[in-house]
Amino acid sequence: MSSLFDGADWPRWLELARQTVEMTIEQLPEVLRHHVVKLPISYELKPAPELIEDGIEPDTLGLFVGQAFPDGISGMEALPAQIILYLENLRAFADHDEETYRLEVQTTFLHELGHFLGLDEQDLADRELD
Length: 130
Description:
By secondary structure, this protein is mainly α. It has 6 helices and 3 strands. It has a single domain, classed as Zincin-like (2-Layer Sandwich), CATH 3.30.2010. Helix 1 crosses helix 5. The protein starts with 8 loop residues before the first helix and ends with a helix. The mean pLDDT is 87.
């Protein structure tokens, strides 16, 4: 898989994403923040080929996998709940502009967090998180 990132570039954009997510979490109401800090957040370049074969678009910006919070945790889930942000896709979407990248990381994180909280695509669109 070819990458838009070179070796020196990746750490910078990864750190920008992490800072943006941390700042976004800090701004959440305490009742949400309490649950979100336990939710793993992964940072990857692009969706894995297996996900693309399963129907995930190659230019997907983020993904929530696992059991949504309102559905409860039974311990029998195939995948643990987590948010995955695809940084190469986010950076390409932002046309390599740092401010746009940060905004899109925040929007994508909140969109996937909405799925964790049980919101569907229409609910997210109503909140301008589509």
